[in-house]
Amino acid sequence: MGELAAKKHVQYILSVEKRKDDFVAVVMEHLRMNGVYWGLTTLDLLGKLDTVDVDEVVSWVIKCQHESGGFGGNIGHDPHILCTLSAVQVLALFDKLNVLDVDKVTNYIAGLQNEDGSFSGDIWGEVDTRFSYIAVCCLSILRRLNKINVEKAVSYIVSCKNLDGGFGCTPGGESHAGQSMLFIQLIIFKFYLSKKKNK
Questions:
Q1: For the segment 8-46, what is each residue's pLDDT rounded down to a tens digit?
Q2: What is the four-CA torsion angle of 124, 128, 133, 135, rounded to 10 degrees?
């Protein structure tokens, strides 16, 4: 096997950032925040995070924030919990969480928790166990887990367990490995919190 062509990977990631008007960029515009997160984490893993202009990235991320506190996939897009997590992760990657109004962001996320403990992805109300994981992850990064009912969130995910032992997106939904992985991560997280509380 050959060596990883790290330089070519870096060049490719940086070139994708510059292509904003081609067809692929336009049809994927709503996913840009998530793509930026994945591209930057790849650069970080390759030890090349310094190849991007931090101020430019942070400025763009902040421009994607909606008045509700959530972040959209790009400037002018509706906010979504997934884009909000990616925005928070990008800022954390650069150690720039201080530019956030943390209460505004966490109030947005907390406002997406439903009475049954589930989370909607946005104001349109789609429910998926991924959003529960995203909420817990984002609030953990921002150190504001107290904004949601974690017990209800975990109980909701438990209610999505199926007869085959897997978990669906919603109660009775088809089992999926991704949803099962999220359940395991949240249970580990809940165990960690209970151990930390008892110290």
A1: 888 888 888 777 777 777 777 788 999 999 999 999 999
A2: 10
